[in-house]
Amino acid sequence: MSDQLLVSTRKGLFSARRTARGVWDLDSVSFLGDNVSLTMQDPRDGAWYAALDHGHFGAKLHRSRDRGATWEELGVPAYPTPPEGHVEKDFLGREIPWRLIRFWCLTPGLASQPGLLWAGTLPGGLFWSEDFGATWNLVEALWHMPERRKWAGGGADVPGIHSICVDPRDGNRVVVAVSSGGVWHTKDRGKTWTAHTKGMRADYAPPELVEAPESQDPHRLVQCPAAPHVWWLQHHNGIFRSTDDAMSWTEIKDVKPSVFGFPVVVHPKDPDTAWFVPAIKDERRIPVEGRVVVNRTRDGGRTFETLHKGLPQAWAYDLVYRHALDLDASGERLAFGSTTGSVWISENSGDDWLTLAEHLPPVHAVLFV
After folding, report:
1. Of 23, 55, 279, 283, which sits with the fewest C-beta atoms within 10 Å of its C-beta?
2. pLDDT tens, residue by residue, 85-105
């Protein structure tokens, strides 16, 4: 089990540890005052990566080889110069810039691919590095395909790649999920791409676009390591599951208190077990009835349990972002953080929760290391 948790927040990267007495507590902070949007641990060498969003001063990427004691700055992806006179706009007429706004996900390659990292960004660029993040290359086939211009973006106002899954059976097969842009597959490490959204629906789209790939708004995509043909997807429209390598999807309906949310995690050994944090969608985006709960299924979505022991059950309005729910490698320890700066941890698969923090800055992501 993991005894350390990294919490990426609007004002720094906080570390929490579990003591020998079984108590979790915050113990250090890096980048205090800076907006840390994401962290990743590379299982190949144990290095930590922290992505920072400095707003006007741009996005930065840092690496630590000593578990946060020291950090070194790395390179950042660069977008190509658009053709003269070329301006892209979203469906509301807002310009989509060809420049890095934010790292939205970081994923390592397989053990057989030393140095390989993948980065998904706002505004929708996918990049790869073969030198542990020192330099980056745009996946041009995805960026330049005509379908990308139909990606609409979501709450971040521009399209973004927030989920990258490298198939553990074949490192050349990569699947990415795009906010209001669908799910895209490559079998040749980015040279060609196809969309696979059969079974999804977008009830917010015009009738003729309800099933269109570019209309689908996945919020988070995960693949079960032990059964890589099984995938789970938290969609703007609900919960979807695939048992055929993400080629088609089955919608799971009538989940109380809500099928809307942002994060999902799947058990590393049991593809039928997954967790979600539900909320009210669209304009509100708050927990149902002011109660913070976690939904768990152990039978592939046929039934769900609503877990709440130790979580606030009144006047609580904690929204949980895409990367702010995590599960450790044992499948027993869970943690999630909220927009109100609260963090909760469970050591028994979500049956019981303890409060780690209540007054941190807004939490973007949590990660067991």
Report:
1. 283
2. 888 887 778 888 999 999 999
